[in-house]
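Minutes, project check-in
Item: structure for the 163-residue chain
Input as provided by the requester:
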Amino acid sequence: MIPKLCTTVALTVGLAFSASAIATDTLAQPSTCQIIGDSIAVGTQSFSKQCKLVGIGGINTWQFNQMYKNNLLASDIVVISLGTNDHEGVNTRQELIKMRERVLAYSVYWIMPSIKPHIQQVVAELATQYGDFVISTTKLQADGIHPAWSGYRELVELAQLGS
């Protein structure tokens, strides 16, 4: 679970969010792991059912921040999969920073998008900035974007989520 110091920080940080965020049990009872983001997050969570999913397929980073802006993302482990669906109208760096500022965890893993080199660079830079880990797989489906089942299993193993 989140250490007492981080829980105190989470509650203090939670005050900056809306009253609905404070009223939820999310802050009082953080899950052991959360997988957040897009369809790749959904697929990863399907191989790690003990983790809470915060996300939906097809979502871009701006949409994620709009939909989940009141969620404090507090867990022992947080796995992030965002950026793959971002387009030119999304300021990916700014939106990923907004999201990352709400994460409280012992370990944070970013799933490297398999496409869009400019977004891969942003993910790598932010992971370094926050002292997080980057994980990836080359085991992809025919679309070259989504992991194959063996790729999802590999991501779960790399993030030390068990299965």
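Outcome recorded: The longest helix spans residues 117-130.
No further action items on this chain.
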